[in-house]
Specification:
This protein has about 160 residues and is mainly alpha-helical. It has a domain at about 1-10 and about 45-145. Helices cover about 85% and strands about 0% of the residues. The protein contains six helices and no strands. It is globular, with a radius of gyration of 17 Å. The termini are far apart.
Length: about 160
């Protein structure tokens, strides 16, 4: 889980830097809200993300499985080809689900969020265990939120 979370941070930061260099990007409003709340509010925020992130895994993996089944059993695709298409298609879908969060920035959502989803689906593909992909997703998001809080704390002291 930790390895996939760290890999995802490296890849999504790289993609984010490229997108940021080429176009406007929007921030996640939750990060701003998190920076203005007290310690208890921050703890509640982190706990509240647990079911949300599990839900994000469910709304990614179930369509992945449905598409995989349809491609292999109904259309006769090879398993490898079906996995690749389902992996890509559900990553695009996941990015699109984040459009309201990132001010309808299509490039940011499809490239950065969709790219991050590609990495976060990989543990499920490799293990067939949703707890592994969920753990990677939770670790990833919590590390990013914590880094944002830490950075905001440093900036306020300058």
């Amino acid at each position: 889980m930790l390895g996939f979370a760290l890999l995802n941070i490296v890849i999504s930061m790289g993609l984010g830097f490229i997108v940021w260099a080429l176009t406007q990007v929007a921030s996640n409003g939750s990060t701003t809200q998190l920076g203005t709340t007290d310690t208890l509010g921050r703890m509640v925020f982190f706990v509240k993300t647990l079911p949300q992130l599990l839900g994000e895994e469910v709304i990614t993996i179930l369509p992945f499985l449905a598409l995989l089944h349809w491609l292999t059993h109904k259309l006769g695709w090879s398993r490898k080809g079906a996995i690749l298409l389902a992996w890509f298609a559900t990553s695009v879908m996941f990015g699109m689900l984040h459009l309201p969060t990132y001010d309808w920035n299509w490039v940011q959502c499809l490239v950065v969020i969709g790219g991050a989803r590609m990495v976060l689906t990989l543990p499920w593909i490799m293990t067939k265990n949703m707890w592994v992909s969920t753990g990677a997703h939770i670790t990833n998001d919590w590390l990013l939120f914590a880094a944002g809080l830490w950075g905001a704390g440093l900036a306020s002291k300058v």
